[in-house]
Design goal:
2 copies of one chain form a homodimer.
Chain A (H helix, E strand, L loop, with lengths): L2 H11 L6 H12 L4 E2 H7 L7 H13 L3 E7 L2 E6 L6 E5 L5 E4 L5 H10 L8 E8 L2 H6 L1
Parallel strand pairs in A: 4-6
Antiparallel strand pairs in A: 1-3, 2-3, 4-5
Helix pairs in contact in A: 1-2, 3-4
The complex binds manganese (II) ion (2 copies) and zinc ion (2 copies).
Chain A binds a DNA duplex through helix 2 and helix 4.
Chain lengths: 142, 142
DNA sequence: TAGCACTTGCAAACGGTTTGCAAGTGCTAT
DNA sequence: ATAGCACTTGCAAACCGTTTGCAAGTGCTA
C-alpha cells in the first residue's frame, strides 16, 4: 500500500470521502516538521490550486475527526499539525515566527494544583503553553 | 493624593498626557479582578462614551509604557490587565469565557530545559500558559 | 454507470483590529 | 491666565483572517 492509498484509507476510516483537496492537505501536513497556517497550506497548493475556503473546511473536518490538532500560537492566527503525535508544546520565534517542537510536558501536577486552588472551577480539561524567544538566525541578523 | 491624582501622576511618570479617556480606562482596569477585552472596556465607558478606536490606542500606549499587559486568552480577542501584578496565568471557562487568576508559576525550570534541548534557539524570553475547563456554574447548567 | 449526498469554488458577509485625517484638548512657555 | 503646538481623539473606512450561502462538481454506492 503506497502512501496515497494509506492516506485514502485513513480518511475513509474516519468516515470521510478521500477527495483530492483532502489528500493533498493531509500530505502537506504529513511532510511538515512544524505547524502550518491556513495561508501556508493554501500557498503550497498550486497546479491545480485549492480555494482557501476549502482549506479551512478541510482542516475543520480533520479536527473534528481527530486527525489534526488546532493550535493558537500567536496573534490570532490558526495553526495546524497532525494529531498523531504525543502531547507537546512549541517554541516560537518572536521575530520570524519559526516554530520548534518542545517535547516533554510537565503540567499534570500543576493542573491538579490549579483545580485544588480554584474557587469557580472543579475540573481543568486542557492547557495551552507556548514559549517565546528569538531564534539563532534572528539573533545573528540583528 | 486621591486616586485620580495618583493615576494622573502614574501616566505623567510614563511620559503620557493624563487625558480623560486614559484616566477612565486605567480606572476600569484597576477596578477589575479579571482581564478585560476592548469590547468589555468600551461598554463600560458611557456618559460620555469613548470611541472603541480610542480604547485600542489607549491600551496599546499602556502596553508600550509597561502599565498594562496584553493577553491572548483565546482566538480572535485581546484581553488586558494591569501589569503591576506578579507574573501569573489564567484559567478560562470554555463555555462562558469566565477567567480566574492562577497564581504560582513553576515554568522557570522548564524554560531552562527548553533552551538546553533546543536546536534553533539559545534563549527563551517568555511563555504563555492558560488552563481551560468548565466553571461550576456552566457544569451545573448543563 | 447512474444517482445522490457530500464537497468544492466563488462571492460576499463578518468581526476584531488598524489606519488616515480633521477636529479637539492637555501641557508648556510666556 | 492665555496662546500655541504637539499630542490625542472621533469618525469613516480599510484591513485581514475567518465564516457563510449557494450553485456547480465529484466521490461513493448500488
Ligand atoms: Mn508540534
Ligand atoms: Mn490575571
Ligand atoms: Zn502540555
Ligand atoms: Zn508563568
Amino acid at each position: 500500500m503506497n502512501e496515497h492509498e494509506s492516506s485514502s484509507a485513513l480518511l475513509k476510516a474516519a468516515g470521510l470521502r478521500a477527495t483530492q483537496p483532502r489528500l493533498r492537505v493531509l500530505s502537506i501536513l504529513e511532510d511538515s516538521t512544524y505547524p502550518l497556517s491556513v495561508a501556508d497550506i493554501a500557498s503550497m497548493l498550486k497546479r491545480p490550486s485549492v480555494d482557501q475556503v476549502t482549506v479551512y473546511r478541510t482542516l475543520e473536518t480533520f479536527v473534528q475527526a481527530g486527525i489534526v490538532q488546532h493550535l493558537e500560537l500567536h496573534q490570532g492566527r490558526s495553526y495546524f499539525e497532525l494529531a498523531t503525535r504525543e502531547h507537546h508544546h512549541h517554541l516560537v520565534c518572536r521575530s520570524c515566527g519559526r516554530v520548534e517542537d518542545v517535547e516533554g510536558c510537565e503540567m499534570d501536577s500543576m493542573e491538579k494544583k490549579v483545580v485544588k486552588k480554584s474557587k469557580h472551577f472543579s475540573t481543568v480539561s486542557s492547557h495551552a503553553l507556548e514559549f517565546f524567544g528569538d531564534c539563532k538566525t534572528c539573533v545573528q541578523t540583528r
